[in-house]
Amino acid sequence: MNLFFERDLRLSRRKFFGKTAQGIGALALMSLLSEEGYAQTASQGMPGLPGVPHFAPKAKRVVVLWQGGAPSQIDLFDYKPDLAKHYLEELPESVRQGKRLSTMTSGQKSFPILGAINPFRQYGQSQMWLSEMIPHIGSIADDICLVKSMHTEAVNHAPGVTFFLTGSQIPGRPSFGAWAVYGLGSLTRDLPAFVVMTSADRQKSCGQLFYDYYWGSGFIPSKYQGVRFRSEGEPVLYLDNPPGMSPELRRSLLNDIDKLDQKRYQDFGDPEIETRIAQYEMAFKMQTSVPELLDISKEPANILEMYGPDVQRKGSYAHNCLIARRLLERGVRFVQLMHAGWDQHLNLSTQLAIQCQDTDQPSAALVKDLKQRGMLDDTIVLWAGEFGRTVFVQGDINKPNGHGRDHFGDAYSLWIAGGGFKGGTVFGETDDFCYSVTKDPVGVHDMQATLLNQLGIDHKRLTYKYQGRDFRLTDVAGEVVREIVG
């Protein structure tokens, strides 16, 4: 809907509410009788759209473990033992086929092949091949669905992240989390429906920035955008009362502001006024809920140990993974963790291991923690980056900190756990050089459609009219990958 149509709709609803008590009862009945009886009611938090979910959902929560910089599928997930036989041989032109590369390597005169820098082994009853660098993820092999046939249009970081998280390489579209909350609403009154946390490797080796539009609401009302919890200072800016203001005084002030905003809303019907009202109220509730949420002192020792030695360091990936579980169990619909450090252009032989040490154990711990609490079945855990890496070397192979792999979008890997995805499954294949998808290709819009499907959403029906066009997360593409879901 555009803002003018939404204004008219809300004005009509206001009149409907104002006329009779029977009107309110009728609206409640309509909610109960919504399509197939799966609609979210407003009593649990911010309501979603009427008739959404479109069908019975397999999942009601999502946590995205975003690995910024692009992990190397060759070294971690896509087992190609024969590459060792071709060490530093030229990647044949018949394999390269003029595929798009970034400007950092497109002009190289030589493309020497480099296989996985560490051994692989099989994990779990599924005997899934994974690198020995990620043994903890290996320990949950039977719970994850490994997709090895991902491909994307992007070859640079910001467009790649934007494409995966918003459906377009150009900033300005609503993010995945915003779409989910817009359609499904919230499960809690005391915390935001969509929360974001960021982290980076201690060496700050990866220069990518995390832009607000990665979790923004684009052209839909801003109440659906993600709320960022910071790792330093106040977790949420301006949440604390200023000196001299008591909770009672703040409550009184908010009541007065609310009256003014309500009057303004009645006059203009601007959805952003409604957003502002909701944000003031949420901030007041978060003054109590956020400190309790972030206090991990009462977590059992075995849980802290499971997340690893870095869990006590605020702002670390491990700490954020534990907070993510606490958010999910308190009713937060969508949690997005964004970790920078995977951009190994010239330090593959040293920094890749450090990244694995920082993220392997906490990622697996989150899955295990959700599973032991009975939450994994209806929670989607997505571990992904914006694209993959090249099989050929970038830089000088003779320098330990002078070589690595460039960006590569035509074939890469990610994994998903929970939410009805088939654990212990490997889907898709690439050629012998991990350069082209040869079986069951999965595009970004396909993955988005599949994730929405597990939330009970038909991706073609979750739309928002803006500037005369119906927009959706999957743009004009996307097919649900039925083979990887139950």
Write the layout of secondary structure elements.
Elements: H1 3-19, H2 21-32, E1 61-68, H3 73-76, H4 93-96, E2 120-123, E3 128-131, H5 135-138, E4 144-151, H6 157-166, H7 176-184, E5 194-200, E6 227-229, H8 247-268, H9 271-294, H10 301-307, H11 317-329, E7 334-340, H12 348-372, E8 379-384, E9 388-389, E10 394-395, E11 403-404, E12 407-408, E13 412-417, E14 425-427, E15 429-430, E16 437-439, E17 442-443, H13 444-454, E18 464-466, E19 469-471
Parallel strand pairs: 1-7, 1-8, 4-14, 4-17, 5-6, 5-7
Antiparallel strand pairs: 2-3, 4-13, 8-13, 9-12, 10-11, 15-16, 18-19
Helix pairs in contact: 1-2, 8-9, 11-12
Could you explain how this protein is built, in words?
This protein is of the alpha/beta class and 486 residues long. It has 2 domains: 1-33, no CATH class; 46-241 and 285-484, 3-Layer(aba) Sandwich (Alkaline Phosphatase, subunit A). The protein has 13 helices and 19 strands. The chain has helices at 3-19, 21-32, 73-76, 93-96, 135-138, 157-166, 176-184, 247-268, 271-294, 301-307, 317-329, 348-372, 444-454, and strands spanning 61-68, 120-123, 128-131, 144-151, 194-200, 227-229, 334-340, 379-384, 388-389, 394-395, 403-404, 407-408, 412-417, 425-427, 429-430, 437-439, 442-443, 464-466, 469-471. The strands form 6 sheets. Strands 1, 4, 5, 6, 7, 8, 13, 14 and 17 form a 9-stranded mixed sheet that branches. A two-stranded antiparallel ribbon has the order 2-3. The model is unreliable at 11-43 (pLDDT under 50).
